[in-house]
Amino acid sequence: MTRPTTARSLVLVVTTALAAAALAVPAQAHHRGSAGSPPVVTPRAETPVLHDDDAGGNADADDPAIWRNAAAPGRSLVIATAKEGGLRVYDLDARPVQSIAAPPAAGPDDAPGRFNNVDLVQGLRLSTGRADLAVTSDRGHDRLRFYRIDRDRPGGPLTDVTDPAAPAVFSRDQAEINDQRTAYGLATWTDPASGTSFALVSRRERTGITLLELLPAAGGKVTYRTVRTLDLPAAFRLPDGTSWAPCGEPGELPQVEGMVVDPANGTLYAGQEDIGIWRLRADLTGTPQLVDKVREYGVPGVYDEETEECTPGADPGFGGTRISSDVEGLTLLTESDGDGYLLASSQGDNTFAAYDRELADHNEYEGGFRVAPASAALDGSEECDGAAALNAPLGAKYPHGLLVVQDGHDAPGDGDRPATNFKFVDLGLVLTALDD
């Protein structure tokens, strides 16, 4: 999410053909919501608050990934982006393990590094041997950054292994990079047939998604090359025959941020924030299909340049009923029998929606839940940007797996300072909530 809720731009439409330590652990809870509201789960722990201001280093929690330590699952890690604050690494108690600064600006008038989304690659072949990597989109420099994971390395588990010659993902020069229509959302994927690893990267304020092949470089470094790019639709014909042109800041197109790939079948799910959730092949061939629409789909609006806000018009009733814009925080909750869920953060109503993972069931909606406060000291999740689920034992603390969600408004906060962090939720509670 790049805009505050009070000034959320819906999006300008054009036609296109295609598609710190944690506080004391409270008792965890899951209970049914009131009539018409989703079930509630509560977090077990939260990371220290980040502040997106000068005093806080402009750190803003955004997107997490969960790295499982196969040798000692209880010593697994959560790796998360903090935008201009770089990367943060936490243990399963939500305590900080390592902080990595985003790279500085290329020049005094250039954009600084800004880490937007993060994902993992298991066992990538480097010139120095295989390694697990954390991959992050550096929106500030329009590049991907790579960090080798070594849980017991002195100085911290992450080591930067980015090839200094790695190219910009979308931009032709520094002037275009400074416009910040740059690398934004991110998902990784390894093709089981070839063993080749890829990153799928969306572009800020554009509808494009590009497929990058990850490549070893000299000295154990990592680089990439562009395979192909696909543009999702930016204009939509409504059931009444009209063309929908959602309100938005001039020049902005409906961007994608939340993305995840199902490794079992190479299916990419992409959240176009003010449109809905797309399903498409991870190799970016074939025709994208819209799995679900946000409630605001089809609602016209008028943009006010002075207030930088949109005034919505009458709702024609063409939108969905389960998610509200922005739709972000896509993650997979996989199960050993091949079943499971696609989870999506519905920022507009602070809930999470769950869809059947199996394509044969057409990603049928399976229910939802909300991450609510566990106590006065441990709040829930609001306007969640990023989420990560891992359905595997993680030691004594999370024997049923873990869900990590970003909280866009940490409470009780610190006056008027922007406050964000990450909540850790026992995945068993989520599964129980969805099974009810």
What does this protein structure show overall?
The protein has two helices and 31 strands. With 436 residues, it is mainly β. The protein has a six-stranded mixed beta sheet with strand order 1-2-28-27-26-25, covered by helices on one side. A hairpin with a 5-residue loop joins strand 17 and strand 18. The two termini are 31 Å apart. The N terminus is likely disordered.
List keywords for this structure.
436 residues, 40% strand, disordered N terminus, single chain, 5-stranded antiparallel beta sheet, 6-stranded mixed beta sheet
Would you spell out the secondary-structure blueprint of this structure?
Elements: E1 30-31, E2 40-41, E3 45-46, E4 50-51, E5 64-67, E6 77-81, E7 87-90, E8 96-100, E9 115-126, E10 129-138, E11 143-149, E12 158-160, H1 174-179, E13 183-190, E14 197-203, E15 208-216, E16 222-231, E17 236-237, E18 243-244, E19 256-262, E20 267-272, E21 276-281, E22 289-293, E23 301-304, E24 309-312, E25 327-334, E26 340-346, E27 351-356, E28 365-371, E29 387-390, E30 402-407, E31 419-426, H2 427-435
Parallel strand pairs: 2-28
Antiparallel strand pairs: 1-2, 3-31, 4-31, 5-6, 6-7, 7-8, 9-10, 10-11, 11-12, 13-14, 14-15, 15-16, 17-18, 19-20, 20-21, 21-22, 23-24, 25-26, 26-27, 27-28, 29-30, 30-31
Instruction: Tell me the overall shape.
Output: globular
Distance between the termini: 31 Å
Q: Report low-confidence residues grouped into runs of 5 or more.
A: 1-27
Figure out the total of helices: 2
Structural category is: mainly beta
Please report the total strand number as a whole number.
31
Q: Report the helical percentage.
A: under 10%
State the strand order across the main sheet. 1-2-28-27-26-25
Quote the beta fraction.
35-45%
As a whole number of angstroms, the C-alpha radius of gyration is 20 Å
Average pLDDT, rounded to a whole number, is: 92
For the biggest sheet, the summary is: 6 strands, mixed
